[in-house]
Amino acid sequence: MTGEQQAVFVNCFERQTLLENYDQPIPLAALREIEALNKLKEDESSVYSVFRIMVLHPLLAGDPDPVLIARIGTGESEWSASWHLVSRWGSSLLPFAELRAIARSKVVAAIESAKEELAHAAKVAKVCPPHRWPSRIKGWSNTHEVVDNEAIDVIAKS
Fold first, then answer.
1. Least enclosed by CB within 10 Å: which of 45, 54, 66, 75?
2. 55 contacts 9 by C-beta, under 8 angstroms
3. What is the pTM of this model?
4. Sheet holding 82-88, edge to edge
5. Residues 36 and 42 sit within 8 Å (Cβ to Cβ)
6. Pairing mode of beta strands 49-57, 82-88
7. Could you tell me which residues come within 8 angstroms of residue 118 by beta carbon, excluding any fewer than 6 positions away?
8. Same domain? 56 vs 94
9. 10 Å Cβ neighbour count for 67?
10. Higher-confidence residue: 38 or 62?
């Protein structure tokens, strides 16, 4: 896979599951590809090593169907291996341009959400000193925090 393909698939299909832990139906054609990969994995005379077979799938039901990928290399280290697209099925067979648009919209939504969280945190920081932030705002050890109702009220009103 190219870097762009990998980025698109990882953003369209946020969850990565090892094949042996994937519990959803897999089409027969994809199962045949898996069988071929397993034979390659067991073939000691092969120059290729199959390190990992993964299913990339969406977090929510109703999103595009999964993509099957494998990490294949020529050495003994997985770090020298590269990801290869093995199979796509169902709605993941959309043209790559459409998958790219889906991935882009998910990335833009994540960025917008992060910007909103940062804006809220900045607003809270202006009206309430950090030593009075509730733990859900601090996001770090609560060993030195002082949380009182007044601080929570200030944050709730902001």
1. 45
2. no
3. 0.66
4. 15-18, 49-57, 67-73, 82-88
5. no
6. unpaired
7. none
8. yes
9. 25
10. 38
129: containing domain: 114-157
Residue with tokens 């043209």: 95
**106/124 Cα distance (integer angstroms):** 27
Per the structure block, which two tokens stand in for 50? 């199959």
Query: Is 109 within a domain?
Result: no
Count of the separate structural domains present in the chain: 2
Helix and strand numbers (H, E) in the chain are: 5, 4
- The SS3 call for residue 66 is coil
User: Does the CA dihedral 60-66-68-69 come out positive or negative?
Assistant: negative
8 Å CB contact between 52 and 78: yes
Closest CA to 144 of 132, 136, 126: 132
Cβ 32 vs Cβ 26: under 8 Å: no
Q: Which of 105, 48, 112, 104 is nearest to 74 (CA)?
A: 48
How many other C-beta atoms can be found within 10 angstroms of the C-beta atom of residue 3? 8
- Which token pair is 108? 């833009």
User: Does 96 share its domain with 119?
Assistant: no
* Average pLDDT for the chain: 78
**Span 17-44, mean pLDDT?**
89
Query: Hunting for tokens 């009103």 — which residue is that?
Result: 157
Tokens (6 digits) for 70: 């494998």
